[in-house]
Amino acid sequence: MKSAIYLLSIAVLALGLYSYEVRKDNEHLQQTIHAQYTNSLTNASEKLSTLQQSVSQSLLFQDEVALENELDNIWRISNEFRSTISSLPLSREVSNEWLRYVGNIGEEAKFAADNDDFESWHKRMPLVNQNLQALADEWTVATSNFYQNDASISEWASVAEKEANDSPFKTVAANLKTYGETDFPLTASESDWLKKKELQNLDDQEITKDQAIEKLESLIPGIKDATYTVTKSKDNAPYPFYHIQFVKGSRIGYADITVKGGYILSFLSERPVQEKTGITQQQIRDLVTQILNKAGYTDLQLVEMRENHEAWHMSLARVVGEDKALVYADGVQMKISKDSGELLGLNAMEYVQKEEINEDQEVVPIDWKAFFRPGTQVEEEQLIYTENEAFQLRKCYQVIARFDNDLNETFRVVVDTENHDVLKVEYMQ
Amino acid sequence: MVRSIFMSVILIFGTLAVIKPDEPLAFSGQTIERGAFGDDVIELQARLQYLGFYKGKIDGIFGYGTYWALRNFQDQYELGVDGIAGTKSKDALVRVSDYHGDWVHEQIEKGNRFTHYGGIPLAQQTSAGAGSSESTDVQLPVKYSERDLQLMANAVYGEARGEPYEGQVAVAAVILNRLESAEFPNTISDIIFQPGAFTAVADGQIWLTPNERAKQAVLDAMNGWDPTENALYYFNPATATSKWIWSRPQIKQIGEHIFCY
Predict the structure, then answer these.
(1) Does an H or E element contain A229, and which?
(2) Name one GO biological process term (chain B) (predicted).
């Protein structure tokens, strides 16, 4: 009996010590997180204040150098503010609205600096400056509780769990939404871009579920007579489509097909694939051509092939005009198995609603020797259409350039044909 | 006499086997070109490096570095410059270079930092464990890195390992759609670790080791597949308590998740 009491006492003591240690560890963790969140909050508040001052200061200058300097600051600070805000446990709504609003300010600053468009900056920013000042004041009020001596991690935990309407950030969230809509209305090109993304211009005749399955089977005969489950997109989806799930043998997959016109947006099939293959890269290329002809996608060109251990992934772009320029924005992607050459995936969403091309854009020749530093070799040149930062489709030179050295580092450089703005530089592996 | 001829033949073959121990590992019959990956590319890079044409990493991925090296080799040996390793180029390479296949593969498997130049003892061309142990069996679109793939595979496995393959691609696609959206941070890491963004981060399931299926799902999403049709959010209707998430315009349901804008 004595021994049992002795052992029990030891066990209770050990348990007590253990729970004390766990509690201590938890407290330590909570304090560390609390300190990090408070530090981020302080950073965010300071950056918001600096951003507002910078926007205000940018309204001072007419001198282009001084103004460009300020615009660079605004772009940098807006990025830093975005990064800090996204590390705070705010409700999704508050966080999203902040990121969008401040991101818009930064993008505007960058656009004005890149295009020397100082007039429109000066025209738009007085209102933004005023609203940003109001937001900074509301932010100070909303966050004051977080600096009180008795504030604890529970304050942060409750903010993360609460809806924006029930949180201290209620006013900030509501104003951010309003200011976002008034200060940064969508431009025509942004609106067109959204319309295209949401397939709003499709006005073809509607097809039935059975016709959708028929369409799918005609392109991918391998799944003929599969077991199908067809559902329609939710009522709020911006465009109606059939979501077809299929099972046939070891194949399981899906396809999305638009109700209007029956266009295949996306198809993906999963099955066990053998890694070893006797199929050559040329045979895969031939298979791609066959599939494209069958689908009626006759204006596409294969631009990239990537072999992975089960399948080849391929990118294709639409070819337009006499100069055979590539439109990457109207691309199609394909996935073909390495063991049998079966089409495992097709993604044609961007191709369904094609870009409107302005072929009249001037093509001003470039002297690449003057454009690039000595020691840079231009290996390939091709005309393409791509979007600039303002979502405008521009005709561009696409150049594959490499350093003529031991490592042969290679770059893809995209340059506007008319104004020679560099729209993109990519390091090619 | 017959015996001495027989012995000579044995001696010659024996010597050849010692001098070129790895010749049986010579190229397969495939033509190799940009975009390819695998053992043939490893051999191609190693042989080009043996001759001093290729100075990059031997990783089995036929990228631009390998392409220019091969073109330079073809140019110097007057083989017709096209950057494609066909029969003529491969035969010429095998003729003029050595390939220590077992050694090269051993270095890759160990994640060693190594080179394969001719005229330098192999032992002097490797430093143990100093190289990247990153997987070399994937080729990603240029804007993504293997770290992105790894991080996203962790997120997909933690969030959706019980979902159908389409549902796993969908979760990866949502992460990538956020990358394009002004309402979210600018990097994949910031998106995944944004406080409250993913349950798997909050409950630690993101640290489970992802399986091959999750990696494949991420690879398909990175290559353009988006079963969600541009969704930015998803939730499980059986467990979601946020009024806000229910207010988002819904697109479709895949498995247990509803995807929405």
Answers:
(1) strand A227-232
(2) spore germination
Q: Do residue B50 and residue B122 come from a single domain?
A: yes
Q: Which two tokens stand for residue A373?
A: 């530093």
Q: Which two tokens stand for residue A151?
A: 């504030």
Tell me, what's the pLDDT at B14? 47
Q: Do B186 and A82 touch (CB under 8 A)?
A: yes
In this prediction, residue B137 carries a pLDDT of 67
Residues 175-234 of A with CB under 8 A from B: 197-198, 231, 233-234
Phi/psi region, residue B229 (left: phi>0; alpha: psi -120 to 50; beta: rest), is: left
Over the stretch A112-163, which tens digit does the pLDDT of each residue have? 888 888 888 899 899 999 999 999 999 988 888 777 766 677 777 777 777 7
Whether residues B184 and B249 fall in one domain: yes
Give pLDDT tens digits for A348-394: 988 988 888 888 889 999 999 999 999 999 999 999 999 888 788 89
Task: Please give the DSSP secondary-structure letter assigned to residue A206.
Answer: B
User: How far apart, in whole angstroms, are the C-alpha atoms of residue B20 and residue A33?
Assistant: 61
> Hey, are the CB atoms on A402 and B243 less than 8 Å from each other?
no
CATH code for the domain in which residue B53 is found:
1.10.101.10
Decide if B199 touches A, using CB distance below 8 A.
no
Split into its structural domains, chain B has a count of: 2
Task: Classify residue B34: in a domain, yes or no.
Answer: yes
The answer to whether residue B132 is domain-embedded is no
Chain B CB contacts of A429 below 8 Å = 61, 63-65, 142
Is the domain of B118 the same as that of B179? no
Phi, psi (degrees; rounded to nearest 5) at A348: -125, 20
Q: Please tell me what DSSP assigns to residue A400.
A: E
Chain B residues with CB-CB distance to A265 below 8 A: 229
Looking at the fold, whether B182 and B100 belong to one and the same domain comes out as no
Does residue B165 have a pLDDT over 60? Answer: yes
Same domain, B118 and B153: no
pLDDT in tens, A310-338: 899 999 999 998 889 999 989 999 999 98
**Between these two residues, A203 and B172, which has the higher pLDDT value?**
B172
Q: Do A280 and B30 touch (CB under 8 A)?
A: yes
Do B151 and B237 lie in one domain? The reply is yes
Chain A contact for B118, CB < 8 A? no
Taking CB atoms and an 8 Å limit, are B229 and A407 in contact across chains?
Answer: no
- Give pLDDT, residue A236: 81
The residue count of chain A comes to: 429
pLDDT tens per residue across span B176-229: 999 988 889 989 999 999 988 898 998 899 999 999 999 999 999 999 999 998
Residue A79 sits at the chain B interface (C-beta within 8 Å): yes
Domain shared by B151 and B179, yes or no: yes
Model-level ipTM above the cut of 0.90: no
CB-based burial label for B213 (10 Å; 0-12, 13-18, 19+): middle
Residues of B in contact with A197 (CB under 8 A): 230
Q: Indicate yes or no: CB of A308 within 8 angstroms of CB of B220.
A: no
Q: Domain ends where: B127, B161, B178?
A: B127
| The pair of three-digit structure tokens given for residue B204, joined into one six-digit string | 């630690």
**Rounded Cα–Cα distance for residues A306 and A243 (Å):** 28
CB B97 within 8 A of CB B47: yes
Q: What is the model's pTM?
A: 0.86
Q: Is the dihedral of CA B94, B98, B103, B107 positive or negative?
A: negative
Average predicted confidence (pLDDT) for chain A: 88
Which of B79, B94, B127 lies at the terminal end of a domain, its last residue?
B127
pLDDT digits (tens, 9 = 90+) for B83-126: 999 989 999 999 999 999 899 998 888 888 899 998 888 888 88
Domain spans of chain A, in order of start: 2-185, 209-352, 368-428
Range of the domain at B121: 2-127
